[in-house]
Amino acid sequence: MPKKNIVILGGGVGGLRAALNLEKLLGRDQNYQIVLIDQNTFHLYTPSLYEVATGKLSSRSVLLPYHHCFRGKKIEFLNATVTNLDPVRKIVQTNAGDKIPYWKMVFALGSDTEDFGIPGVPKFGLGLKSVTDAERIRQSLARCAATKSGTIKVVVGGGGFTGVEIAGELTNYQGCPIEVTIVEAAPRILPGLPEEISKIAAKRLNLLGVKILTSSPIKKVMASTVALFQGRVLPYDILIWTAGVRGSRFLDPKVFPLDKKKALKVDQYLRVPGFEDIFAIGDSASTGIAWTATKAEEEGKIAAYNLAAAARGREMEEFKTFDPPFIIPIGKRWAIAKIGKLILRGRVASILKSLVLLNYLLTILPLWRAFAVWWRGEREVLEVHPSSRR
């Protein structure tokens, strides 16, 4: 009898967690084959992308080759881009010409940048969703530092998690003086979080010299200026766009039920209504929780459990909404952390961020390799170049 394929689309935090947990539950069952498809050959640790963008970390510090994660695991990895999905015949097609039948599927495609139809954003704004985006920002900073005399003006469109993180990190940029301005349409930065967190973050950013413009929706972006609806025009050398995300554009609204953010609607078991053989997790799933790595990982765990339950004819577990913990780094050795009702700030929260990374690595890599990867990243931050000793 042919094996039943469980196909996972995307190897981000949620997709990787689903694959690894499912392998523990079903890896010895010869009736099933776990297949993970990703357009990259590496797993990207997105929470540290902002450090790559500013040059604090090299790109290799946030990239983990899948063959390291899957070594010794009964997981088939396909490096390809999904080009078509037939949910009726239950077949996935890739750009490599593969036609893969599936028994069950997990959508873990992540999110895409949302420009809200604002003229000029796609052309002039630099997103921060991939290593390519981060490298583009890094190169733009280096180019401005080499060609422009005086202070570089950086406008960060959006005061959410990513906007606050990159703005804070830019204040440590060593290449040249930088003036950073956050432009947020909502009345406060971090609008989806408790007001106390917003106030702490704003105070820290102001201390670092970051300007914050709230209640300031952007009307239009030109080659060197940003026009606000109030009539104000902001000059810029670099525009970093973090103002919005949406579900993957691969999802066809004519086929699948999507919410306002273009994420898949799911039932209590993370299945897509009308397509009970398809599960959705992370930024692909509309579960009422802020799109964070913690959300993706927890949903990946539930999806894996429910897939194994379906394979064994057992009762599935309902996904329950929760208040995800988070850490927001803002500048050198400083962060805000919220765990339940506990709020930490400063150096302690910054150290916690590093420990969270180590804990994550320990769950996806062998013990010795997890420590090696974690230490390598820390060593790059602390590296002293010979030229700096003179």
Gross geometry: globular
Strand content: 25-35%
Question: Which stretches are low in confidence, meaning pLDDT under 50 for 5 or more residues running?
Answer: 379-390
- The value of Rg in angstroms is 22 Å
Q: How would you classify the helix and strand content by structural class?
A: alpha/beta
Total E-strand runs: 25
The number of helical elements comes to 10
Please summarize the sheet with the most strands.
Answer: 6 strands, mixed
Mean pLDDT across every amino acid position? 91
Helix content: 25-40%
CATH topology label of the largest domain: FAD/NAD(P)-binding domain
What's the number of domains? 3
The CATH architecture of the largest domain is 3-Layer(bba) Sandwich
CATH H-level superfamily of the largest domain: FAD/NAD(P)-binding domain
Description:
With about 400 residues, the protein is of the alpha/beta class. The chain has 3 domains: about 180 residues, FAD/NAD(P)-binding domain, CATH 3.50.50.60; about 130 residues, FAD/NAD(P)-binding domain; about 55 residues, no CATH class. It is globular, with a radius of gyration of 22 Å. The N and C termini lie far apart (about 70 Å). About 40% of the residues are buried.
Task: Provide a short characterization of the protein structure.
The chain has 390 residues and is an alpha/beta fold. The protein has helices at residues 13-26, 49-53, 66-69, 121-124, 131-147, 161-170, 195-207, 293-312, 347-364, 367-382; strands spanning 4-9, 32-38, 42-44, 63-65, 75-79, 82-86, 91-94, 99-101, 104-107, 111-113, 152-157, 178-183, 211-213, 218-221, 225-228, 233-235, 238-241, 245-247, 264-265, 271-272, 275-280, 285-286, 326-329, 335-339, 342-346. The strands form 8 sheets. The protein has a 6-stranded mixed β-sheet, covered by helices on one side. A 4-stranded parallel β-sheet has the order 13-12-11-17, with helices on one face.
